Amino acid sequence: MSVQPSTTGRGTSRYDADERGYFGQTWGGRFMPEALVAALDELTEAWQEAMADAAFVADFERVLRDYAGTPSRLYHAERLSELVGARVLLKREDLNHTGAHKIRNVLGQALLTKRMGKTRVIAETGAGQHGVASATAAAWFDLDCTVYMGAVDTRRQALNVARMQLLGAKVVPVESGSATLKDAINEALRDWVASVDHTAYLFGTAAGPHPFPSMVRDFCRGIGDEAREQCLEQYGVLPDAVAACVGGGSNAIGLFTAFLEDEGVEIHGFEPGGDGVETGRHAATIHAGEAGVLHGARTYVLQDDDGQTVESHSISAGLDYPGVGPQHSWLAAAGRATYTPVTDAQAMDAMALLSRTEGIIPAIESAHAIAGALDVATRLGQEKGPDATVIINLSGRGDKDMGTAIEWFGLGDADLGPDADLEQVEADAATELDTEAQQ
Amino acid sequence: MTSTSTAFATARAEGRAALIGYLPAGYPSVDGSIEAMKVMVEAGCDAIEIGLPYSDPVMDGPTIQAAAQAALDGGVRTSDVMRVVAEVAATDVPTLVMTYWNPVERYGVERFAADLAAAGGAGLITPDITPDHGAEWIAAADEHGLDKVFLVAPSSTDDRIAMTAHESRGFVYAAAVMGVTGARDATSDLAGPLVDRVRSAGDVPVAVGIGVSNGDQAAEVAGFADGVIVGSAFVRCLLDHEGDLPAGLDALRSLTTDLAEGVRRAR
Ligand SMILES: Cc1ncc(COP(=O)(O)O)c(C=O)c1O
Q1: Whole-model pTM?
Q2: Which of A34, A107, A250, B35 is deepest in the core (most CB within 10 A)?
Q3: What confidence tens digit (pLDDT) does each residue in A275-305 have?
Q4: What ipTM does this complex have?
Q5: Which of B54, B59, B106 is the closest to A33 by Cβ?
């Protein structure tokens, strides 16, 4: 299975960005201080050269295979399939080293950093997954590493702070603004303006100024390239639909890219609906946001009437971001992909359901994709029968989320035995899906 | 409206550099910020930059962030900023708005330009828009005769400096240190060469910003630049006297006097 060369800038797909980083002539671009333009130009050139260099591509492939453990399995979730009446395939990114798809992006960017001769990396992180992946790659590639993390998140995710520190990274709590992910990005950018001659910014998702949305996509697209080939190999068909959760959008674009030209394949992104979009406490940027500019790109943004960024809310720290990668904004505007909110409660139900049907504890981010995709699978099962096939990106594992799960489900007290509510979740899900199937 | 170029012309005629002072609108309050800017005009600023507070100011250090955040927490709106512009521009000193891009896009680029011109504003300084991604703003500014102040940095290539000098009107803002805003102990040795590179690319005035906090530094920068931009040091005056505006205004007045004396000492 091979890493596909980039098509960016070659105009081969209407879904790609043009040379200046605009998708569909509108989304993305580079709304950035002049001080960073030289660095972004240098990065663009280095990335394009690297992707066209067989030696770099082979190196990246080798590192992914030997160190991260890719290709990840495409796993037939039989009990879930039975439940929805369609074939549900899980792309097991949760089994990658460090437990999520994020390692792909980080290894690609770290290799590029080495190639460019820079000695230090910085990163932002929300839940800590990208920070841990960055610290991991920095340790392995022997790079200095500083991770910016909202002060609110360092308190919520103390375990990941400790992991990063053990790996040798410096973690800087960010107190400014709302002290969450968007402010960590601001602080990383401030660092970068002052350190750009020797420092690479390992951006954690397929957002930000050009070339990050396209470059991160290139480093993550192995997810979809592998899944497409595995699906054809194992089942002799393309899937009817692919689905992923969307925070900034790296795991989603990583899966979607391989299927963009397969017109018969439905593409579904699931956004964090928080307490429900109608409550205003959510992070469903495409569904409920409006076009604007955030962190260097024109994209959908949660903002007020004056263009001030509005704080987002999600139970999942990795999805809790008021912007989204610009290519997703374009795919939504072009009608190629559909983006639907999934609430905290729906995601937590799906977390429990997957744990109890398949013995897989998903990251809460990924649980959003499970929740949304099961409805899609149920519909497709009705339309096309039990061979209807849905690929869901299981972007990460849930170990990091056990604190949240303990609180949400009231777990952790051994005397109580299996939690009654949880049994109920499983039963309810089965009935609900059953009812949908009969409608 | 008065283009900033008039301030540079006056200063040049007097054989000195222009002093440009920055404060965010809405800190400590909308009216308080108007009062503060008027003090800066009285005490010798040749042009005023009014910051439009934004939730995600990636080019600003802790001092300006703190004041801008307080202004936002106090409920300042884009429409308030227009009122501040009108009041300050009424003193006949060129008055610019410095803003990150999203609030302008949200307000409507054309509407923003029209309202800014109607308020008597001279133009916009756009720290996160470069001319090659600023076509919409350039068109609106041209239509309304507004100054377009773009930034250059020590990392800018000669080609980009030429492009920026060509597209700017009013002056070019030379961000002379690689870093965010904030007062610094020493002026940057990157500033002089950067100014020279802009000069050789066109005849638009060059003002140097980021880091200047006293008259001696202002004198040093005035030795090679057309203008000296001071921001964080002014904001500091107000932050250091939070809750006591008269004391803050006194501090502003004496700092402005020191700086205005500095830009006159150089040549
Ligand atoms: C497991 C997992 N999935 C998804 C995401 C969301 O990021 P993205 O939308 O870039 O894939 C995160 C972010 O931390 C994550 O940890």
Answers
A1: 0.94
A2: A250
A3: 999 999 999 999 999 999 999 999 999 999 9
A4: 0.96
A5: B59
